[in-house]
Structures are given as C-alpha cells and as structure tokens.
Design brief:
Length: 142
Amino acid sequence: MSEQNYQNHRKIDPKFHKALTVLALITLILSVTFIIQNIVDQWLLSLVVLFMLLTLLLVGSIVRLYALKVQDRVIRAEENFRHYRLTGNLLDPELTTAQVIALRFASDEEYLDLAERAKAENLKPDDIKKAIQNWRADHHRV
C-alpha cells in the first residue's frame, strides 16, 4: 500500500461510492419516468414503485450510517486504549468523537501533545490532521 498522508487518506469504495450510486440514480430516473407516464392509468402501481424506491434509498443510507457509527465507536475505543497504553489514563472525554477519529492518524510521538492541543484549542478534525507531522496510516476505514 502507498504511504498515507493528509492528501490521500480519504478512502473511496468503488462498489459503494460509484456503482451503487450510479445504480441508485438510474433507478430514481426510471422510477420517476414510470410514475409520470403511468400515474393516471396505474396510480397504485406508481405509488408502489415510488414507495419502494424511497424505502430502498432510506435503507441504503441508514445501513451506511450505522456502519460508520460502528467504525467511529471502534476507533474511539482503540484510541482510548492507545492513550491509556501511552499514559496510564483514559482519553479526555471532552474530546469529540470527530477529534478522536482525526487523532488516530498521529504517530505515538506526537499523539499526546496533539490530543492536548485538540482539547485546549478545540481544534477541528481537519486542523488536527493538517497538524500531524508523522502520519500513521489507517487503511481499514471505509
């Protein structure tokens, strides 16, 4: 794997971000076309198609949201353990989950100072990532 840094750390999953998005867009266009053409003659079927489309879109986005929330919880637990391993103390609970997720990229050498700065200066996650000098890759997050 290539070296990860601020410029290339965002991950795109082609199956989700490209294929599924294109399929959802095509389905949306075809469904709306069907509804417009058939609302008068087949209004019940048109409503079924509309509700199925909305249901699928809602389920897809909820499933994605749940997966991201689980990843966030795992990262928070890992970083809490990492902080405990380095200091003997748990992470400051005032750090937001987004800040902790950004801190995971910091090397052990700069992690503690950056965690303190993040809390003291209320750094945004993007600012935390930009402040990292020695990037610690995370190739597992999707």
